[in-house]
Amino acid sequence: MSTENEGNAVPSAPSTPPAPPSSAPAEGARATGPAASPEPSRTPPPHPPAQTPEGAPHPPAHAPEVMPHHTPPVPPGSGWPPPPPPPAWGAPQPPAAAGPSRKRSGGLVAAVLVAALVAGGVGGGIGYWAAERNDGANSSTTVAAGEAPASFKREPGTVAAVANKALPSVVTIEAKAGGSGGAEGEGGTGTGFVYDKEGHILTNNHVVASAAEGGTLSATFSNGKKYDAEVVGRAQGYDVAVLKLKNAPSGLTPLALGNSEQVAVGDSTIAIGAPFGLSNTVTTGIISAKNRPVASGDATGSGGNSYMSALQTDASINPGNSGGPLLDARGAVIGINSAIQSAGSGGLGQTQAGSIGLGFAIPINQARSVADQLIKTGKPVYPVIGATVNMAEEGEGARIAPQGEDGSPAVTPNGPAAKAGLKAGDVITKFGDRTIDSGPTLISEIWTHQPGDKVTLTYERGGKQSTVEVTLGQRQGDS
Question: What average pLDDT does the chain have?
Answer without folding.
Answer: 76
